[in-house]
Design brief:
45% helix, extended, 0% strand
Length: 49
C-alpha cells in the first residue's frame, strides 16, 4: 500500500482542481467558464463578514 504525506495529498487535491495553474493577467468570461467546467460546482455564501 502506498502512503502520502499530508503535503503530497494537498498538492494532488489542488492540482486535480486545476488550481495550481498560473493566474492569468486578466480574467474574462472564458477563464470563468473554464474554471466552472473544471470544478463542476459553485458555492455561493450569503453571509456578510
Amino acid at each position: 500500500m502506498r502512503t502520502l504525506t499530508l503535503d503530497q495529498a494537498r498538492r494532488i487535491a489542488v492540482g486535480a482542481q486545476g488550481l495550481d495553474l498560473p493566474r492569468p493577467n486578466r480574467v474574462d468570461v472564458r477563464h470563468f467558464r473554464n474554471v466552472m467546467n473544471r470544478l463542476k460546482v459553485v458555492q455561493l455564501d450569503s453571509v456578510n463578514v
